[in-house]
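Morning. Coffee machine broken again, so started the prediction first thing and wrote up yesterday's gels while waiting. Chain of 95 residues, entered below exactly as on the submission form.
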Amino acid sequence: MNSIQVGSVVLSTQGRDKGMYFVVVATDDKAVYLADGGMRRLASPKRKNPKHLSDSGVKLDAIATKLTDGKKVFDSEVKSALRQFSQNQQEKQDV
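Came back before lunch.
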């Protein structure tokens, strides 16, 4: 769980949301809290066991900074960042 920090982009490997990308919005001793800006909004993040996640190695610094500073982060920012990340992943797979 050390590599998963606030602002990290993670892939769900278990559960209904398997195969979906999320942004870590908070961490706990035993869980992380995830949002995607669409189905899972920042107001009600998904609680998930870190064992059921795969870290992509990408950290969204702008969103991470806002979350740690306590500034307002909009769902549209998270959704847009994840959409852009997914498109980049698709381009890498196509090449």
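The mean pLDDT is 92. Going to sketch it on the whiteboard this afternoon.
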